[in-house]
Amino acid sequence: RDLWLELPGYGSSRVNKMYEILKPKYGSKPALDILRSGIERVSNQEIPYYVKIDFEMFVETVELLGGVTVDVEKSIYDTEYPNETESGYTTFSIEAGRQELDSDTALKYVRSRHSTSDFDRSKRQQQVLKAMKEKAKKNRILSSPLTIKRLYDEFEEHVESNLRGSELIGLAKLANDIEEDHITTATIHDTEIIQEGSFLYTPSRDLYGGAFVLIPLKDRYLELQQFITVLFDSPEFFQENASVEILNGTRSHGLAIALYHSFFSL
Q1: Is pLDDT above 90 for 251?
Q2: Coil/strand/helix, residue 238
Q3: Single pTM value for the model
Q4: Is 170 exposed, middle or buried (0-12, 13-18, 19+ CB in 10 A)?
Q5: HSE-CB for 63 with a 13 A CA cutoff
Q6: Mean pLDDT computed over 239-262
Q7: pLDDT, mean of residues 31-44
Q8: Residue 36 burial by CB count (10 A; 0-12/13-18/19+): exposed, middle or buried?
């Protein structure tokens, strides 16, 4: 969401800001199409579809499911959660451990950012989406085309997508057959390069009008694209938590570490 995105002919900004910039000028659907094509270029992946939902849709969906259950990895205490109060903020807190989240708490859990990093928030969002999917499967929502169609008609004003109704039903039926332990998630971040997904860095905010942005290493997307390709084509590599060891089988001292640094500086 904070990745700096350049769209020739349309300008440049963070991914999560580009839609806001494009929508007033081109309309919502064209703006989503422009953004989609930009992310295709960055990821080197074809992205034929998009789905945009608002907060109200998220809340109503969790409410429909009767809440969701998640394992909170670490306690959160956020004194600056945005709210429609005089100060503009309210305090959100939740303890670590297994928690049953109602719809309002679930929204705060996936949106809170001030007491943890934005990358932690991404992991929480992935966690809640998986929990929602499992709850929908348990409640047999995903296996009922009529229920899916009724829900889509009911919440249509909160959803924007180029998927047809029949395609949504087909995707729901497909999701119903996917077990949770067969779902792989990953986060692209800016920590040490030896960690999984470290292909970005944070430049000085002064260079971007005070905004926090992420830039690909060496100002190119090749490593990021390679990572995404492996993630999609060989997810078992991540599911097995596999590691790669570089050994020196020659008489040349230091060759292994030189190869390691060469690989990560491609």
Answers
A1: no
A2: helix
A3: 0.76
A4: middle
A5: 11
A6: 72
A7: 93
A8: middle
